Fold:
Amino acid sequence: MKIVGIENLSTAQIRDEVQRGGKFVYFQFCISVIIMTFRRPSEIHFVRSGESAVTKGLSYSLISFFVGWWGIPWGPIYTVGSLVSNFRGGKDVTEHVLANLQQHAV
Structure:
């Protein structure tokens, strides 16, 4: 599992940061090609306390905004869903990641 933003952090440092409000999230993006629309998750990102998850997801929102609309009928639907999810800070998967880190630490 690739996680962006935890390079050079120990498991203890990650847990401390999560206790202070850090979280693990992924973002959605949508790409359309005429009649085909693809909605995909990004890699998981670690958002430290005090950082903006919306800012980290901005590139995925821009991809969806510019190339997500064009597929009929799912392009507009998936694009709006992706933008809403990203502007709410992405999908929080902190509990799953921490459980996975603990499992690998044992």
User: Anything to note?
Assistant: The chain has one domain: 3-105.
